[in-house]
Amino acid sequence: MQASHLALAQAPGLARPLILGSTSRYRRELLERLQLPFQTVSPEVDETPLTGETPHALSLRLALAKAQAVAALHPGAVVIGSDQVPELDGMPLSKPGTHERATEQLRQMSGRQMNFHTAVSVVCRESGFAETDVVTVQVRFRDLNDAEIERYLRAEQPYDCAGSAKSEGLGIALLDAIVSDDPTALIGLPLIRTCQLLRAAGAVLP
């Protein structure tokens, strides 16, 4: 849906319309838990990492850039932008896209601990509100053999997930531990931080 075609309704408990600057179904499903009406708009943002940029910094920059890009089109709305960057050995991992790349990612992560940086940004251009935060989740993978990896990928096909595993699904069986103070961050949107930022922007939440 093109942004120019949106008919934005004011969300109860929020003085302005609410937009999720993402087309991710995972983020949409998470935000629906807050029971606030919202629209989704695809942000047009180049996600190429900058030279020397850390995964942590990349997630923060992209979350803010996505929120700002949509807020520029809808200056009266409160816009949520988010981005997740998995980190292994100091380097970012992208969405695998294919079975072969997912297999290689899971082989790399087998028996390892890695970080998933999930940033969230809330921006309202008219009010001047703009705040961004990041949640880092530590994930420890079990020692995985090729047969386990193949069975998992054939069953769940998580090729649109950075890190090649869905912790909210069968992917949980690949893990030894998850350490986080904001449990939905690993799925793609840290709802505790999101609620904090929405309240700061003027929302009234349960």
TrEMBL record:
Q: Which CDD domains does its entry note? A: Maf
Could you confirm whether the keyword Cytoplasm appears in this record?
A: yes
Recorded coiled-coil stretches? none
Reaction catalysis annotation:
N(7)-methyl-GTP + H2O = N(7)-methyl-GMP + diphosphate + H(+)
Pfam families, per database record:
Maf
* UniProt-annotated catalytic positions: D83
What's a single GO MF annotation on this record?
nucleoside triphosphate diphosphatase activity
Q: Gene3D superfamilies attached here?
A: 3.90.950.10
- Record key words, sorted: Cytoplasm, Hydrolase, Nucleotide metabolism
Predominantly, its location class is cytoplasm
| Gene Ontology BP, a term | nucleotide metabolic process
Per its database record, what is this protein's job?
Answer: Nucleoside triphosphate pyrophosphatase that hydrolyzes 7-methyl-GTP (m(7)GTP). May have a dual role in cell division arrest and in preventing the incorporation of modified nucleotides into cellular nucleic acids.
Asked if the record carries the keyword Ribosomal protein, the reply is no
What does the record give as EC number?
3.6.1.-
As recorded in Swiss-Prot or TrEMBL, the protein's gene is named maf
Q: Which family does it belong to?
A: Belongs to the Maf family. YceF subfamily.
User: Record's InterPro entries?
Assistant: ITPase-like_fam, Maf-like
Question: Mind telling me which GO cellular component terms the entry cites?
Answer: cytoplasm
Q: Where in the cell is it found?
A: Cytoplasm
Q: What cofactors does the UniProt entry give for this protein?
A: a divalent metal cation
- Protein name (Swiss-Prot/TrEMBL): 7-methyl-GTP pyrophosphatase
User: Which NCBIfam families would you find in this protein's record?
Assistant: maf
